[in-house]
Amino acid sequence: MPIAPITGKLRKRFWLDLTTALGLGISGGFAFWYGVHLKHVQKQEELYLRLERARQQEQ
């Protein structure tokens, strides 16, 4: 009793995996950029601004 071949399953699964990976990757990138990176850059800029103001007051 032969088993019927499964056709088209890999192609459908590939597109699902690809779109899921891209969606999660882009979502993760945006979450990192706006949740972590920009806050870090803002703190860094505040530090440099504070140091510059302190340097100007010394002069």
From TrEMBL:
A biological-process GO annotation: mitochondrial electron transport, cytochrome c to oxygen
UniProt-recorded Gene Ontology molecular function terms: cytochrome-c oxidase activity
GO CC, alphabetical: mitochondrial inner membrane
Transmembrane segments: 14-36
Keyword list, A-Z: Membrane, Mitochondrion, Mitochondrion inner membrane, Transmembrane, Transmembrane helix
CDD domains: CcO_VIIa_fungal
Broad class of the protein's primary localization: mitochondrion
Location relative to the cell: Mitochondrion inner membrane
Superkingdom, natural source: Eukaryota
Record PANTHER family: CYTOCHROME C OXIDASE SUBUNIT 6C (PTHR28264:SF1), CYTOCHROME C OXIDASE SUBUNIT 7A (PTHR28264)
UniProt name for this protein: Cytochrome c oxidase polypeptide VIIA
Lineage: Eukaryota, Fungi, Dikarya, Basidiomycota, Agaricomycotina
